[in-house]
Amino acid sequence: VIRKALEPDTSTPFPVRRAFDGLRAEILPNDTIKSAALKAQCSDIDKHPELKAKMETLKEVITHHPQKEKLAEIALQFAREAGLTRLKGETDYVLSNVLDGLIGDGSWRAGPAYESYLNKPGVDRVITTVDGLHMQR
Question: SUPFAM superfamilies this protein is in (predicted)?
Fold first, then answer.
């Protein structure tokens, strides 16, 4: 959702659109191999200042996105349903920066307010299927 929302508008001059699309593809890759490589680089972000600068640029774009409020709602729901915590924020640089940029603060790391639905009573009746859907027993 976030990657699609950050797609450059066709009215943007081509050189700018091309440059931003390259940045978006690098920071939010839609390829699992590239994503794994990015996470590996981000695990020691201080050794990659150019990557850190690109992430800051992306956060700045997110901050001024015209649909920021809706994207923030989606990000909060994602954080809540996925059960993201402070530990995830400390270990996944890309995810934590995107969520911080969308939500505007680190409140998603607070724990109980964003507890995974998998930790709620009755979860033993929920079956996660191969396609990611959930069925009730």
Answer: Invasion protein A (SipA) , C-terminal actin binding domain
Positive or negative, the CA dihedral 62, 92, 29, 132 is negative
How many Cβ atoms are within 10 Å of 133's Cβ, its own excluded? 8
**C-beta separation of 93 from 103 below 8 A:** no
Q: Give the dihedral of Cα atoms 43, 87, 35, 118; nearest 10 deg.
A: 160
Distance CA 69, CA 75 (A): 10
Question: Is residue 42 within 8 Å of residue 95, measured between CB atoms?
Answer: no
Domain ranges of the chain: 1-110
Give the containing element (helix H, strand E) for 129: none
Domain 1-110 CATH class label:
mainly alpha
Judged against a pLDDT cut of 50, whether residue 17 lies above it is answered with yes
* Predicted pLDDT at 2: 82
Burial of 33 (0-12, 13-18, 19+ CB in 10 A): exposed
User: Taking the model in full, what pTM does it have?
Assistant: 0.66
Cα atoms found within 13 Å of the Cα of residue 133, Cβ hemisphere only: 3
